[in-house]
Amino acid sequence: MSSNESEAMANRPPARERVHYTKFEPPKRILLGPGPSPVDDRVLAAMAAPVLGHLDPLFLSCMDDIQDMLRQVFETENRVAIPISGTGSAGMEAALVNCIQPEDEIIVCINGVFGERMRDIVVRCGGRPVEVRAEWGNAIDPNRIEAALNSCRPKAVALVHAETSTGVLQDLSGLSALTHSKDALLIVDAVTSLGGHPVRVDQNGIDVCYSGTQKCLGAPPGLAPITFSDRALDVVRTRRSKVQSWYLDITMVERYWGSDRTYHHTAPISMNYALREALRIALEEGLEPRWRRHERNHRAFVAGIEAMGLRMQVAAEQRLWSLNAVAIPEGVDDARVRTRLLEDANLEIGGGLGPLKGRIWRVGLMGSGSTRENVLLVLGALRSALAAQGFSCPDGSGAAERVYASADPPEA
User: Fold this and answer.
1) Residue 48 CB-density burial (10 A; 0-12 exposed, 13-18 middle, 19+ buried)
2) Which are the contacts of 223, defined by CB distance < 8 A and separation ≥ 6?
3) pTM of the model
4) pLDDT tens digits, residue range 163-210?
5) 43-52 long-range Cβ contacts below 8 angstroms, 24+ apart
6) 204: left (phi over 0), alpha (psi -120 to 50) or beta
7) Residue bearing the bigger pLDDT, 410 or 263
């Protein structure tokens, strides 16, 4: 052995000890945080079906079903209503990178984390964000959007319908008329509202709308349903330059989902099975009954929280049904409460982000997780966790039950 070989062996790192990995078997948590939401057993079973090739005729039929059902859930006649292979943030990026070119002025409404993320993507596209801000926990004032539209030459208005970081619902009525009067596009983030709140893409004149599978639709995270109006597609097709992202270029992706079936990427087969089943379940329930269920459980939860002497962070007229922001009482340790819920009740809720970190809990009541049973469970578990910190409060379950008793039809 040469001296160089000896030196190399001497400097070689010690052999790594072999590790035996056991099978990963996670518990079935009760997911009542900001997402993912609980996944129905029927959706989980759909994911276990045999994997087909992504151009197999049977999978192409599955894709057709998904598109048809997405149009119904989005309430649109748009030809393009497809799932982007990626999470909700990929949907956000797809919506923006396709429509924005360098130097375009984009009005970005910011009242939470996801408005900030929109602004970041606009800048990365070379666009010029025109910010319309509101304090976190408040909706955007439409008068300020109108003022911003009159202050520039806007290419688009981008806003969040359901701000997951704060629990705020943005009223969409009248915004398309304002936006279209300036020949601009209306781009809407419906990640935490689609399937739990009315979004009504066509009725609200939304040009691009995207969502995620892991919230009110009740599938695992991994796909981002998105729809483009013909008006928005015309903007994309007449760009001066190519779309910044090859993977998210809707003019290429739509040809894979369209009649051409042009190869673009290998779709996540099992996740599409899951989405198809989740959409089937949503339409089987019916959109309006599904919205009423989310609203009823939200109202019962709020009644229980207020009966406990706690308060909601967001004004009643601006609250999401799917994501409930509860103000943390003075002197209560946020992390200790959430840890106790996880350890004692196998229950997950979320904490606050940004300026609301340590100030709110985010309780998700979404998809199959939006039930009377879960409302009563989280109210009782939260009361116990607060008591463990010496914060005594009344039982809120009676107030919640009164909401259910007054419901028509009654909650099952």
Assistant:
1) exposed
2) 83, 84, 85, 86, 87, 212, 213, 268, 271, 272, 275
3) 0.94
4) 999 999 999 999 999 999 999 999 999 999 999 999 999 999 999 999
5) 43/218, 43/219, 43/220, 43/274, 43/277, 43/278, 43/281, 44/274, 45/277, 46/273, 46/274, 46/276, 46/277, 47/220, 47/270, 47/271, 47/273, 47/274, 48/270, 49/270, 49/273, 51/269, 51/270, 52/269
6) alpha
7) 263
Selection from 229, 224, 219, 217 nearest residue 283 by Cα:
217
Q: Are strands 154-160 and 185-189 parallel, antiparallel or unpaired?
A: parallel
Give the orientation angle of helix 250-257 with respect to helix 88-99, to 10 degrees. Answer: 120
Residue with tokens 């649109």: 76
Is a pLDDT exceeding 60 seen at residue 382? yes
Residues in the chain, total: 412
| Tens digits of residue pLDDT in 227-261 | 999 999 999 999 999 999 999 999 999 999 999 99
What are the residues whose beta carbons fall under 8 Å from the beta carbon of 391, sequence distance 6 or more? Answer: 329, 331, 332
Confidence of residue 412 (pLDDT cuts 50, 70, 90): very low
* Each residue's pLDDT tens digit, 66-93: 999 999 999 999 999 999 999 999 999 9
From 274, 291, 284, select the one nearest 83 (Cα to Cα).
274
